Amino acid sequence: MSLTDKDKAAVTTLWNKISKGADAIGADALARMLVVFPQTKTYFSHWPDLKPGSAPVKKHGKKIMEGVAQGVSKIDDLSNGLLDLSELHAFQLRVDPANFKILAQCLQVVIATMFPNDFTPEAHVAFDKFLSNLALALSEKYR
Amino acid sequence: MVQWTDFERATIKDIFSKIDSAVVGPAALSRCLIVYPWTQRYFGSFGNLYNAEAIKSNPKVAAHGQVVLAGLEKAVKNMDDIKTTYKDLSVLHSEKLHVDPDNFNLLSDCLSIVVASQMGEAFTADVQAAFQKFLAVVVASLRKQYH
User: Fold this and answer.
1) The pTM is what?
2) Which family does the record claim for this protein (chain B) (predicted)?
3) Are A15 and A97 within 8 A, CB to CB?
């Protein structure tokens, strides 16, 4: 399900609308993931505080959105554009790829709460495809 | 039997009392047909589903969205035994409609997005967790009679 030119345009348009709130989106999405899908907490046992609004959650939410931003800027070639992040996830973090889908859902729920008029079904389908392709690029080197 | 906390019970009832059911059902179903277009396979008799605009304005999609939401409201009224409440619906989806049950998760995702859009900030992480648990129970009950 590769990205058409129409998809890329829709993703860029949506991103331009939401990117100023990227830090808040990332923090909320990550916090939500830890609450709604508690099994994901297993990856963060080294943090002192996993509660929504805590410093580690906010800091890491921001970092995740920087990765998403990188994906938007390299939307024409995600595999090569995200090579460093791909290697990080494959050899160091080794996050089970099923979790990418979980985080993608939380990201989209947050965007829906914050930008209900912009997250139309047309924007949703393009963004969902983009996040799936991003996940594929991140898991590229797993095996 | 599913254990619901007081918070979960109250949250589910609160969500369904707050949302505009005439809007949410049609919005969720049309979003599902747009975001996951392969789900259109079950709606061959609905006429024009050629693009997002057509889907959003299709009266049969809207009507069916209301049917789906009415089904969910039945589950809300019978939260302690959704499995039994949905027995006939499960048989219907399996034996007559031949719906791949993985599709139930896709519609659930769209329901979460639409309710999130309607509730905004009020759709907190805890509220989302309760709502998605409810949807998971609904989906499991719909899957129950498949064989």
Assistant:
1) 0.91
2) Belongs to the globin family.
3) no
